[in-house]
Amino acid sequence: MTELVVDNVQKWLGGLQILKGASFTAQRGSIVALLGASGSGKTTLLRCVAGLEQPEIGQIVIGGKTALDSDKKIALPPEQRNIGLVFQSYALWPHRTVKENVGYGLKLRGVAQADIEKRVQAILDRMGLGHLADRFPSQLSGGQQQRVAICRALVYEPRVLLLDEPLSNLDAKLREEARYWIRKLILELEICAILVTHDQSEALAVADNILLLQDGRIVQQGGPQEIYSNPNSFYSADFLGANNVVTAKVRSIDGTSAVIGGDDWSLDGTVREAAGLSVSETARAVIRVERISVSDRPEEGGIEMSLDDSVYLGDRWEYRLRRGDFVAKAHGAEQLRTGTVWARIPPESVWVFSAGR
Amino acid sequence: MSTHTHAPAAVALTKATAEKKYPARMPRHGNAGAYRIIVIGLLAIAVLAPVGLIIYQSFLTAAFFSPRAQFGFDAYRYVFTDRTFYQALGTTTIFAFGMVAIAVPLGGLLAFLITRTDIKGRRLLEVLVLVPMFISSIVLAFGYTVSVGPTGFVSLFVRDLIGIVPWNIYSLPGMILIAGLSHVPHVYLYVSAAMRNLPSDLEEAARTTGASIWQVSRDVTLPMVLPALIFAAALNLLLGFETFGIPLVLGDPNGIMVLTTYIYKLTTLFGTPTYQLMAVVAVVLVLITLPLVWMQRRLLRNARKYAALGGKGSRVATLKLGGSGQLIALSIIGFWLFVSVVLPIGGITVRAFVDAWGEGVNLLDQLTLMNFSRMFEVPSLYNGIVNTIILSVVGGAVAVAIYLAVGLAGHRNWGLSNTVLDYIILLPRALPGLVVGLAFFWVFLFVPLLTPLRPTLVSLFVAYLVVGLSYGLRLLQGTLIQVAPELEESARTTGATIGRTWKDIVIPIVRPGLAGAWALIMIIFLREYATGVYLMGAGTEVIGSLMVSLLQTGAMNTIAALSLISIVLTGAGLALALRLGAKIHD
After folding, report:
1. Same domain, B437 and B354
2. Into how many domains does chain A fold?
3. Is this complex's ipTM strictly greater than 0.90?
């Protein structure tokens, strides 16, 4: 069931357009991640959905109710949108206890006091916070505060839950735990959630659907695997994953396959973006680091490269490879001796794009 | 919501703006727009009505309620051909600049010693230095009269010692010196704030290259705090043009007049009130002060920019004064404190408990509590004390509530209404208390609906409200801005309207700040004396204004007792403010 429709939302700040027509939909029981670098407009888009920012153009429908319609000049204030928003800083009210923080939304909705107590206690118990109900936010750890913030946004069962970088204030270990339980919770409660993040691994791990934003536009959307393994632009390909970016001349193009190369090397690749690509012009290729396998023995289809160094990373080794002006990184399980090695780079993993401007 | 009603206009609007770079803004609903406009509009009326009435009155040939009143420039003609007016204008200018010349260097020095050096007893000094600021200048001026006036306690003591009194405070230099000394805290407040924000490594670097403390302060510290010093100078210049108490007490006996006392004297000059002349002088005064206020605003904006460059959270390491340095520094501050706090307050304290003094009078023989028991016998005095307490305690609380309502109207507000609010808040700073009081006196006479309120405390309260507006609103805006925007936004997304958000989130969070603001406003109202001069009547006396009128009769015993009561009340207010954690430092 579609809970959120965002259609052609455009927003200006001063003379600058920061959202250039974003459209997407989100379903109940699924998580949509708005992923992008800082300044891509992802937080602004979320705030437009929440009603905290007012776009000049666009339509937003939340739970079947029009929240924004620039043609009909409808713009509901945040409190009439029936949403829950979890802030990056959690924004717990310092003068209210955990119980009062969480119960506030119910109180505003006119729920009876006894009912409020019951529902607040139930959700706190569920999050393992039951014993903290009478504490003040300042007495809680960062992880506990975050869970309280989520409780506060969820307890009144909003149609859409909005999360603005909810994990960025947690330390690395807590973060991995948190993204697992947040996903589990949302799927269990079958609510519609929109998550803003700049952290690709967070988006990949949590979301059912990822919207990649660049410069106020959604440049690609799809499931995590789709968006990771099938990028439609150089930006998408480069933004996700750990990559080798190679600039080279196009030797030949044949349908979707192309050969690129430099001084004394060439690589078979796949054309991902045909526009602007022609023989003997410059092109850019993206190769995911994990797609290159390196061996110190000659291998079928392997390209001979020189290994400058092996860098120890704890769980793996990183190889620094070079052949002429082709420089690449790859990973492997063991240390290899510097010198000549053979790198296998499958043609379907060499994504060729035009060089852009 | 009335979204459908303005649909046709909206279509036209979109078409008109289609050619422009970006489309029209969507209307902002649920942002308490109506509330903001009503509050700001009411405030504008409260501030602009009296100013407008003064301007109107200045172009009439008689009092505005007189049937003979006609439009004309007679009043301007009279004032601009009056030699006394030009004398007063000249005196005011000399007085204001002289005051700045004394207060700014001394205030800067004190700020440097207290914030940048390891001077002993810093905690205590920080509070003591501010004391003269909290005492009304009429009380201070009276204090100097009884201690170092021609027959003051100290003067007589010195004359017994050396045969003559080597000073005369009833002169322009005397007035300037006393006003300069008592305005040191106003300089100290701003300069010390700037100095606290200076990263001390700059000074340390200079010290390590071999510069002495004084070279460091001259070559490094001084240029860095120059914007703050200039701002303080502009502020004091403004205060100098607006002073009333010191010239009234010290200048009047010898006929030395400034613009404010000139206005005051105009009342009695002709036997009948010459409102049109008073209005003209008030207009002239405001024409001088308004550019000063505008200049201050510009300076403050620049000073903020400047301060932003300084390292935030930088450690303030203090300069070591050394043994003899400590002695010199403490002597400077001690001497200043003696002259500007101990002399006037000490004088008042002694004077309040004696019946008569003069040559050959043994003070111990004259000890009495009579001066205070009179307070209970004379209704006007008794009323004055009670009214002052009611106005400052209750009125102060109501004023904070009103400033809060205005503050919320301007809180996270943009656009035209906020610009209007900005200027409305600024205007009262250009209005001396005497002029505000006069203007409201006229407003309450002029508007038939308000006339019944004139002989009540309400009229005084409204005038006080405008007098304290700039300061009070700045206090509250400073407090409101500290509430993180997400705390309000999270309430909104949780389902609270903007009104509920203010009630449930913003106000509870700023409550400690409100208490502090209340205590500070209370002190402002306690020390106010000029505003009530015209507004006060039988039953609505206040201490400060009573003193102004008693000065004419020379009832020294009563004035001394009232002064002491005023000081004690102010002290209590200050203690309460410190206790409530009020931020005296901006």
Report:
1. no
2. 2
3. no
